[in-house]
TrEMBL record, chain A:
<dbReference type="GO" id="GO:0007417">
    <property type="term" value="P:central nervous system development"/>
</dbReference>
<dbReference type="InterPro" id="IPR051855">
    <property type="entry name" value="eIF2B_beta_subunit"/>
</dbReference>
<keyword id="KW-0963">Cytoplasm</keyword>
<dbReference type="InterPro" id="IPR000649">
    <property type="entry name" value="IF-2B-related"/>
</dbReference>
<dbReference type="GO" id="GO:0005829">
    <property type="term" value="C:cytosol"/>
</dbReference>
<comment type="similarity">
    <text>Belongs to the eIF-2B alpha/beta/delta subunits family.</text>
</comment>
<keyword id="KW-0396">Initiation factor</keyword>
<dbReference type="InterPro" id="IPR042529">
    <property type="entry name" value="IF_2B-like_C"/>
</dbReference>
<dbReference type="GO" id="GO:0003743">
    <property type="term" value="F:translation initiation factor activity"/>
</dbReference>
UniProtKB/TrEMBL annotation, chain B:
<dbReference type="GO" id="GO:0007417">
    <property type="term" value="P:central nervous system development"/>
</dbReference>
<feature type="compositionally biased region" description="Basic and acidic residues">
    <location>
        <begin position="16"/>
        <end position="38"/>
    </location>
</feature>
<feature type="compositionally biased region" description="Basic and acidic residues">
    <location>
        <begin position="102"/>
        <end position="131"/>
    </location>
</feature>
<dbReference type="Pfam" id="PF01008">
    <property type="entry name" value="IF-2B"/>
</dbReference>
<feature type="region of interest" description="Disordered">
    <location>
        <begin position="1"/>
        <end position="158"/>
    </location>
</feature>
<dbReference type="InterPro" id="IPR000649">
    <property type="entry name" value="IF-2B-related"/>
</dbReference>
<feature type="compositionally biased region" description="Polar residues">
    <location>
        <begin position="1"/>
        <end position="11"/>
    </location>
</feature>
<keyword id="KW-0648">Protein biosynthesis</keyword>
<comment type="subunit">
    <text>Component of the translation initiation factor 2B (eIF2B) complex which is a heterodecamer of two sets of five different subunits: alpha, beta, gamma, delta and epsilon. Subunits alpha, beta and delta comprise a regulatory subcomplex and subunits epsilon and gamma comprise a catalytic subcomplex. Within the complex, the hexameric regulatory complex resides at the center, with the two heterodimeric catalytic subcomplexes bound on opposite sides.</text>
</comment>
Length: 351, 534
């Protein structure tokens, strides 16, 4: 049966994606950038929409939620997966509302009056069948994919607005967004970049060699020298793994120290993060890597008697951040909650 | 006329006083030699001015005379410059009537003594700053009654971007037959005033064997410094003092030379060589000053064996008092600050902090330790090894995990390389970062430092005076890839491996020294007290 074949092919693809996620997450650092993960997630969701069996929007949302839960469980620290699932759910809601004729605005506004008069009637709204819903949803997902492909370019286009000549810019670790940002600015301006290497995996080294190939004056410093050098730095530009709903960050370890040092010297801290990194969930367990990362640092007989910690991520509170640069422009950390409400529906926060 | 007679009698008695003191000083040879030198320098200047015409009107003369009378009776610890400036002017004006009475005898006698005193002064002045000082400069600060304008020469190791200074240094090293070490690799522009050496080219490679100019124990010490085998300011100072003991043991006074002057001259090329191997630390600088002072204070009639024995004892007592007993005293104070259930954070490997923790553990305090470490030196491993051997419960993190671990910490203990006179703490790079984050989390920061590491320098950032270590240390292989392997081929890429940084005093809550527990801002007070004692 062609339907069954499609289904098995679909589930195969989902399984392959899940195992890929698990493998990437447990390795040292991420082997693929989050932009790539976002794109793959979205194309997978598009395939599910196209090939799975569903008759109304409610069914589709159930299916996507179920798959989304499986995918996020596979790699909890990779939040872009969950974010894309929520985006797609929001798209479905929007398309459904448009097909029904009512505007999304009215549905979204939760007023006390509405709560009293309408009651819980929104749930069965999604049971209506529309013939063009599938096509509309797939088209909207395609738009989302186009947006995802252009995020890095959109961010880099804003580079010249923020970097003047002869500046000293500091960054930490390796972020593809920041790399593209700085390379774009370097085409027209001359500035210096200081890269903190971010032990123990030293992703900063790769960033530095890549930047110096574009003739940007780069210096690599060990993490311990961040505060020592900060007094000569004009701006700190960093990437992040996730942007949280309060405007805080979950970024690579060492970023909190960098942010505190920048605050002490009143140096602006700019975060380059595309919109798909915005996440409404806070996973309180900061992921830690297995102790094997320390085998190369400590001899065996000491390692057995000692607790060693190697956290992967740091939480940076929003008070330390000056500006967010995303594909839709620059924003202050206090505005992030608003953007979040535009991207995701509140009922989807918990998948 | 009457006035003139009284002034001349006053001055005659003054002269007699001085002569008595001079005769007395030859027998004693300690503090009064300085007084002696002051007097003679003053008289030299008087004679110079006698050749010129009398300038000041008589009224001025009288006023100055009144000022000059109480001057000689002041205590011996006054510095020469202050007295040299106003007093000779007074004295010359008032002595010009006296000069006519006895010019010939004083001139010849004083000229001979002046030459002898200049030689010994030059020898003792070499102990002050690297490169020596001008003869009119004063002892650094800290006299109880006056504040001196200090004329100091900038040390050579922070003048690398000045070609004139480099040439001078090269000439000096050539004269002393010490090899000059060349810089390595691309230097970050912010640090072009500092040296950057490679560990693969120690200066000992350029020395011929057998070594004639530099004592072999010094050569060995230099190699140990440049390869990082001996690291840590206490270890370096103690090793230096032991090497100097060996040098003194093997020293023999050449004929027609005095031990007190010649030995100091012998030490200069050694010190230049050691600073070529690795720039001297503040503690080493203070130790060298002490030794030179002790050597120049050896009385000239002392026999060689006796002198050597005295010097060996001086060095032993310095090590004992300033390092070993000081660490005992500091442990005693610090243990009061450690309570049961504490979680103590330490950074890198400080011999003093390790000693404190081991002592506290022996005294049955219950605590656990978090050792923070940083690339590329990874000194925390050594501290971890020592603490685990004692049986203390330890946790190990890298410095990038500081924000993660700090909520658990109750106190931070840091060691110091030097304490600067404006209250800044100079220590291993990363210390200021720890103090910053600890302050943000409201965790108390305690710095432990012996008083012999206090220095009179002032500094506000980590750029103006620092040490650049071998940049190749930052290269590392991860996941089979070494990204920085050919960093020299990228012409816009620089690697920066700083050794020290300065921590502002507002991050430090307490400094524990052998004199007690003081706030960071009391460092100049301690320096003043120390200088008065000396």
């Amino acid at each position: 049966m062609p339907g069954a074949d499609k289904e098995t092919e679909l589930s195969e693809r989902i399984e392959a994606f899940l195992s890929e996620l698990k493998r990437c997450g447990s390795g040292a650092g991420s082997l693929r950038g989050s932009a790539e993960t976002a794109r793959e997630t979205t194309s997978l969701l598009r395939r599910i929409t196209a090939q799975a069996r569903w008759s109304n929007a409610g069914d589709l949302m159930e299916i996507i939620r179920k798959e989304g839960r499986r995918m996020t469980a596979g790699q909890p620290s990779e939040t872009t997966v969950g974010n894309m699932v929520r985006r797609v759910l929001k798209i479905i809601r929007e398309e459904y509302a448009r097909s029904r004729g009512s505007t999304e605005e009215a549905d979204q506004q939760e007023s006390l009056h509405k709560l009293l008069t309408s009651g819980g009637s929104s749930e069965d709204n999604f049971r209506q069948h529309f013939t063009h819903l599938k096509a509309n949803v797939i088209e909207a997902i395609n738009e989302l994919l186009t947006e995802l492909e252009g995020t890095t370019d959109n961010i880099s286009m804003q580079a010249l607005e923020h970097i003047h000549s002869n500046e000293v810019i500091m960054t930490i670790g390796r972020s593809r967004t920041v790399e593209a940002f700085l390379k774009d600015a370097a085409r027209k301006r001359k500035f210096h970049v200081i890269v903190a290497e971010c032990a123990p995996f030293c992703q900063g080294h790769e960033m530095a060699t890549s930047l110096s190939k574009e003739d940007i004056e780069t210096t690599v410093i060990p993490d311990a020298a961040i505060f020592a050098v900060m007094s000569r730095v004009n701006k700190v530009i960093i990437g992040t793994q996730t942007v949280l709903a309060n405007g805080g960050l979950r970024a690579v370890n060492g970023t909190h120290t960098l942010a505190l040092a920048a605050k002490h010297h009143s140096t602006p801290l700019i975060v380059c993060a595309p919109m798909f990194k915005l996440s409404p969930q806070w996973d309180s367990a900061l992921q830690e890597l297995v102790l094997r990362s320390f085998c190369f640092l400590l001899p065996g007989e000491i390692l057995s008697k000692v607790n060693a910690h190697c956290p992967v991520f740091d939480y940076v509170p929003p008070e330390l951040i000056t500006l967010f640069i995303s594909n839709i422009g620059g924003n202050a950390p206090s505005y992030i909650y608003r953007l979040m409400s535009e991207l995701y529906h509140p009922e989807d926060h918990e998948l | 006329m009457g006035d003139r007679l009284t002034t001349s009698t006053l001055l005659v008695t003054e002269e007699d006083e001085k002569k008595h003191e001079i005769i007395g000083a030859k027998g004693e040879g300690k503090e009064l030699t300085k007084e002696e030198k002051q007097r003679l320098r003053k008289e030299k200047k008087q004679h110079k001015k006698n050749k010129k015409d009398d300038r000041g009107p008589p009224e001025k003369e009288k006023e100055k005379e009144k000022a000059s009378v109480p001057a000689p009776s002041k205590p011996a610890t006054q510095s020469p410059a202050h007295k040299a400036a106003p007093v000779p002017v007074n004295a010359s004006a008032s002595e010009s009537p006296v000069a006519a009475e006895k010019p010939a005898k004083s001139k010849a006698e004083l000229r001979a003594e002046r030459r002898a005193r200049q030689d010994s002064e030059r020898a003792s002045k070499q102990g002050k700053k690297e490169g020596g000082q001008q003869s009119t400069s004063s002892k650094p600060k800290a006299t109880p009654n006056e504040l001196q304008p200090v004329v100091k020469r900038l040390p050579d190791h922070v003048q690398v971007d000045d070609p004139v200074a480099l040439k001078k240094l090269a000439k000096k090293l050539e004269r002393q037959q010490v090899p000059l070490r060349s810089d390595y690799g691309y230097k970050v522009s912010l640090f072009s005033h500092l040296h950057q050496y490679s560990r693969k080219n120690p200066p000992t490679q350029q020395i011929s064997i057998p070594v004639t100019v530099i004592h072999p124990s010094i050569v060995r010490l230099g190699l140990q410094y440049s390869q990082g085998i001996i690291a840590g300011s206490n270890a370096r100072s103690v090793a230096l003092l032991h090497a100097f003991k060996q040098v003194i043991q093997d020293y023999s006074t050449p004929p027609n030379e005095e031990l007190s002057r010649d030995l100091v001259n012998k030490l200069s090329p050694y010190i230049s060589f050691l600073s070529q191997c690795r720039p001297l630390s503040a503690s080493m600088g203070n130790a060298i000053k002490y030794i030179k002072k002790e050597i120049s204070n050896i009385p000239s009639q002392c026999k060689e064996e006796e002198a050597k024995r005295i010097l060996q004892e001086c060095i032993d007592s310095y090590i004992n008092e300033k390092i070993i007993l000081a660490s005992e005293a500091i442990s005693k104070y610090a243990i009061e600050k450690i309570s049961d259930g504490d979680v103590i954070l330490v950074y890198g490997c400080s011999s003093l902090v390790n000693h404190i923790l081991c002592e506290a553990f022996e005294k049955q305090r219950k605590f656990r330790v978090i050792v923070v470490d940083s690339r590329p030196r990874l000194e925390g491993r050594e501290a971890l090894r020592r603490l685990v051997k004692k049986g203390i419960r330890c946790t190990y993190v890298l410095i990038s995990a500081l924000s993660y671990i700090l909520p658990e910490v109750s106190k931070v203990f840091l060691g110091a390389h030097a304490l600067l006179a404006n209250g800044y703490v100079m220590s291993r790079v990363g210390t200021s970062q720890i103090a910053l984050v600890a302050k943000a989390y409201n965790v108390p920061v305690l710095v432990c430092c012996e008083t012999y590491k206090f220095c009179e320098r002032v500094q506000t950032d980590s750029f103006v005076s620092n040490e650049l270590d071998d940049p190749d240390d930052l290269i590392v292989t991860r996941n089979g890839k070494t990204h920085l392997e050919n960093w020299q081929t990228f012409k816009s890429l620089g690697l920066l491996n700083l050794v020290y940084d300065v921590t502002p005093p507002d991050f430090v809550d307490l400094v524990i020294t052998d004199l007690g527990m003081i706030p960071c801002t009391s460092v100049p007070v301690v320096l003043r007290v120390k200088n008065v004692d000396q």
